[in-house]
Design a protein that fits this description.
Elements (H helix, E strand, L loop, with lengths): L1 E13 L16 E4 L4 E2 L4 H4 L3 E8 L5 E7 L4 H11 L3 E3 L1 E3 L2 E3 L1 E11 L1
Antiparallel strand pairs: 1-3, 1-9, 2-6, 4-5, 4-9, 7-8
Amino acid sequence: MTTAHASAENASATPAPAGSTSAASGDTTAHPLSQPLPVLPDDLREYAYQAIALARFTIHPDGSVDVALVKPTQNPRLNQLLLETLRNWHFFPAMKQGHPVASEQDIRVHFNIE
């Protein structure tokens, strides 16, 4: 097995809403706390090399997520493995007036094979 590094560009949000943080009002966007990385079998390395996917996270007030690939990779097995891993991400939820609220974020995920 080979470990792939999936990283999110602008992990706080892509795109971040204007005025995404306001300390005075207690409003903030959600941000990832735990981002487990997929472990790829050797036969998927070729497909994962420079693969990019766009994941849409629905972040619940408790920080748990529902996730869907809005732009999957070209390999169905890689997409399945990626989804299984992304479902284990955990977020600090968005806050509105100091209270946790549901939110959505699109995060670009790419693999750096070592």
